[in-house]
Amino acid sequence: MTKEEQQIAHNYLPEQYRQTGAHAINHNYLRAQFSDYQEIFQKIEALVLEGDFTLGKSVDEFEARIRELTGSRFAVGVGSGTDALLLSLKAAGVGKGDEVITTPFTFFATIGAIVTAGARPVFVDICEDYNIDPNRIEKAIATNTKAILPVHWSGLPCEMDQILAVADRHGLSVIEDSCHAILAEYNSKPAGTFGLSGCFSMHPLKNLNVWGDGGYLVTDSEEMHNQLVLLRNHGLLNRDECAVFSYNSRLDSLQAIVANHLLEKIHYITESRIARAARFDELLRDIPQITIPPRPRHVRQVYHIYVVRAERRNELQVYLVERGIDAKVHYPIPMHLQPAASGYGYRRGDFPVCEAVCDSVLSLPVHEFIAFEQIEHVASKIREFYAAG
Ligand SMILES: Cc1ncc(COP(=O)(O)O)c(C=O)c1O
Predict the structure, then answer these.
(1) What integer is the mean pLDDT of 265-283?
(2) Are 125 and 58 in the same domain?
(3) Judgement on whether residues 172 and 50 belong to the same structural domain of the protein
(4) Do the Cβ atoms of 47 and 252 come closer than 8 Å?
(5) CA angle centred on 82, ends 120 and 239, rounded to 5°
(6) If you measure from the C-alpha of residue 209 to the centroid of ligand 1, how many angstroms do you get, rounded to a whole number?
(7) Residue 26: what pLDDT?
């Protein structure tokens, strides 16, 4: 492996989630974020003393807070963002022989949930904003199509008016992958509240994050809610009766405590990311080798990741990493070209926008612990790289 390949490979190892001290400007901020962990420990001590471990008070409180935050009628805490997607698909009746239309530019879990539900993922190319191209969805609809699964990539809401219009015309469910998009808005309405359900992740590096795995979904449909509450808890109607055999994906009470603690700061976290992204935009906009994606005015983008396109991306990434800047690539291989997708018959060239985006995107740290001086430093290093030719 060359040095460049080693640096890039490092990106995909679990070590990326550990504070190694190797990067001065990191994507990982967990130690700083939980510097007040003693407060959380006290709340956990109460949980232990009460023995309220499964679907207890803390989960109820969490779901109430999420309803308030999103204006949704129902919120359901589950084991992860992946489970939020899987259970939503199942509750929407998606199963064997069905097709689900989605984007090839996403994290594996989106596709994993579709496949685990028994359905076939059908990909549609993306736009320059990295989200599914709403104008291409209709052509991908077939007789077996059951649902559309848009992903609000990097916290930028998809064009929901157009997506909902197509879904309505064809009687399809819309399940939103909102894992990056807590508090994002489309025409002043929260991401995740447009479809039959909106699915969120609280993985440690999400904008709202817990001490392990956790997720939740929101819906306005009572029927959907009732199904989801069953599906996350063995399909149990009560202690002795099971309505539908399912499995266990309850949001852990302990994780709900962590989430409730952090929800106090979620507006601050969101505003901080938006302000830092705006500063990056200002500083990078006039570098000809960098392309900032469109910043539409009718959305509120919450920057789970700050992503630009860069010429000579791989070289730039190594240059930055060597200078203590944790530049990453989310993600270099589109879903349709993954080994796991080989059975679906897709080929390179099928989704040219997505493929070009995968070859050129670079993510820069944008969380609330990055100082504006650090952002200026990162921008100056990018400028320096291109000036050096
Ligand atoms: C777009 C997207 N969808 C789904 C998931 C799955 O979430 P989780 O890791 O909580 O299962 C993730 C993230 O990790 C994601 O980035």
Answers:
(1) 97
(2) yes
(3) yes
(4) no
(5) 105
(6) 12
(7) 78
Record the tokens describing residue 118, joined without a space: 């028994």
Whether residue 338 is predicted with pLDDT greater than 80 in this model: the reply is yes
Is the domain of 170 the same as that of 79?
Answer: yes
Rounded to an integer, the average pLDDT of 295-304 is: 97
DSSP state of 189: E
Indicate whether residue 330 lines ligand 1 (CB < 6 A). Answer: no
The pLDDT score that the predictor gives to residue 364 is 96
Work out the angle between the directed axes of helices 266-284 and 253-263 (0-180°, nearest 10): 60
**Which of residues 263, 283, 316 is at a domain's end?**
263
- Strand, helix or coil for residue 364: strand
CA atoms within 13 A on the CB side of 294: 12
Do 53 and 146 lie in one domain? The reply is yes
Which domain range does residue 281 map to? 3-28+265-387
Q: Which of 78, 102, 201 to mutate to test the pocket of ligand 1 (most atoms within 8 A of CB)?
A: 201
Task: Show Cβ contacts of residue 335 under 8 Å, excluding neighbours closer than 6 positions.
Answer: 103, 104, 105, 106, 108, 110, 111, 121, 123, 341
Q: Mean pLDDT, the chain, as a whole number? A: 93
Does residue 154 line the site of ligand 1, with CB under 6 A?
no
| pLDDT for position 5 | 54
Beta-carbon contacts of residue 7 (< 8 Å; ≥ 6 apart): 317, 318, 321, 322
Assess whether 195 and 283 both reside in one domain: no
The percentage of the chain sitting over the pLDDT mark of 90, rounded to a whole number, equals 89
Count the domains in the chain: 2
> Does residue 249 have its Cβ closer than 6 Å to ligand 1?
no
Cα–Cα distance, 217 to 203 (Å, whole number):
14
**Confidence band, pLDDT 50/70/90 cuts, at residue 272:** very high
